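In response to a reviewer's request, we include the raw inputs and outputs for one of the modeled complexes. The two entities were modeled together in a single run.
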Amino acid sequence: MDIPVQNISTDKFLEKSGQKSIERDTAKSGTPVCITPSGESIIRIDHITKIFKEKNRTVTAVDDISLDVNRGEIFGLLGPNGAGKSTLIRILTTLLRPTSGTACVDTYDISNDPEKIRSIIGVCPQNSTLDVELTAYDNLEFYGKLVNIPDSALDDRIWQLLEMTELADRANMKVQTFSGGMRRKLEIVRAFIHHPLILFLDEPTIGLDPESRREVWQQILKLNEEKTTIILTTHYMDEAEKLCNRIAFVDKGRLIALDILENLKRLIPAGDLIEIGFDMIDDKIVTAIRENDLINSVQIKEQKLIISAKNGSKVLPAIVAIFENFSLPILSISIHSPSLEDVFIYLTGKKLDESNNGEKQSALKRQSL
Amino acid sequence: MIRGAIAIFKRDFKKFLSNPFVVVMTLLMPVMYLVIFGNAMGGTISHIPIGVVQEGPPYNETPLFTNAVVELNHITQKDPYPKLLDVTVYTDETIAKGALSKGQISAVVIFPSEVSNDNAVRLYVDSADSIIPPLVESAVNGILAKIGAHNPVQVNEIYGNIKYIQFFGVGVIMMAIFTSTMFGGGIALIKDREAGIHEGYLVTPVKRTSIIAGIISSGTVRAFFAGGTIFLIDILITGIILRSVEDLLLVLLVIFIACIGVTSLVVSFASRFSAQQEYASTVAFLNLILFMTSGAFYPVIGMPDWLRWITVINPEYYGVHALRAIILRGQGLDVIGIDLIALLIFSSAMIILGITTYRRTLE
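The model returned the following structure tokens for the whole complex.
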């Protein structure tokens, strides 16, 4: 299979704002047909909604989500618990039917060709589906047969995967003796046993210790090098930052933003925060700093100068130069880039008033502490 | 300490009440035991089919024969009950015995001709059944006394002296098949579902038919081992003997087909249940009904009509009947053919039910 790996920075679909980036031309979405692969996107989700009806209440788990996943990328679905990430994954992996809307996985429609889709995807669900009473080898062998790997190739493939996960020496031990991280790695490569076009990982590192998480991340990156498109859900911001080319923010079933990491961070108008500690300060310094175009605002708080700038590392030398001009010593410098979490909180929770810069900053600071 | 105990009590009780299905089943079980056990075991046996023959030559009906047939046809166990025997008059002893050996009738009474030496009334009974022969025997003795005939009665047990343990042991084979499937196959299926292993199947291209076929075949083999083991134990403990290799193969065939049927039934049930508790109470209930009405303990003929209807769709009934026919009576395919067909129809229906009810999605 020759799948072009996309260069993310040239992604022509990049858009400036979150919400708008997902609006599509709905006029032509009468009966979308999953035509031949368009080259760019491997998954196209078109206005998918999933409503669960319980006894006396209805829950909209997925609320009119539309998005595309590009071939070869690691795509992150990021959101808090209960945001609808797993439901969306289950719809795409044909475990659930959408209440409305459609989606194409490669050239197949999720409603019409679920079986074809199942043969080109690998899934690692949130809750382990390993048989802990079987050995690692047996688990892989069993799954390999379910996904139709020819017997002649199966044994080699299993050992290849066991080597990849460094579990070869434990091949004949029961999975119940494995640590959480080992199980997770085994389950991830199990989903990958048939070289699927797309690999779905639902919360791949949930409940793992930092060391195991790093190992799982290595594993995921390794698999992505084999030109597999990976879709992962997570509620760990660092995980998304570390792994994902593009990130979709999901909250309460809705898609809030979708972009590459840098662009998401730019969604926060305040930009980076620079804190400069001082002994003495001159108002002229503040005025001089304010003259810089990249700087949004300057505040003095206790013995610190708090500067909000579009590109913190770029303006820092200029600020230091100003201090030097006035021969005033700098006691400390720190730059804080907004984290993904800041972006998320900015987008979901606190709707900051665009005109009130100061409030925005203090809110930001609170979040980053 | 008290606080802890009360907390645990409350929690357990809350859980108990939160599952009304299990509550109902828990209460229903003893009631069903009462109704089914009471009716299946304590029922009054009536309408036992028997044949009567006038011995010859000469083949003229003797007054003894005429009177006895009328009396046999009207005898009841107690007054308001339906008549005990359904009498068919055969003109030829061989035909009557043929009907007996095919299981169409339960006994043959042969009345002596006028020129008989000993004047004995010969009674041939299907001794593979442990309840009916004594009833027929006492009925014959009773009517002879009533019409004032002093003929001696010669009882011939056509399958020899079969003990109750041998009669019952055959039924236990069917029970072993059911319990091994219920606890082994069914619970394992639900545990796998709880452990999410089924969710793992569902995202692979494997078809629903394949999933069910795999589950049923593994369950069948397991049940076959259980049934076969109990059969072996039966031979050792109860002293039943097989007459030929052909009989052995036939027994194994019946056990195997019964295993498919019972496993498919349990799987089709289990594939709809997600909680072990609900499943366990439902299947325990099924086990009760199917085993009680299988005829393993007590002849189906003694059950009330409504209960007898269950036997028509009860795979265990056909299984028990076929196994008894082969093991205790040495009968062949001509007698058990109908049982095999019934078991096959049942199995196919259950496999189809299992496939259609198995959820291919998580909804």
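As requested, we also summarize the result in words. Residues 1-30, 350-369 of chain A have pLDDT under 50 and may be disordered. The domain at 8-265 of chain A is CATH 3.40.50.300 (Rossmann fold).
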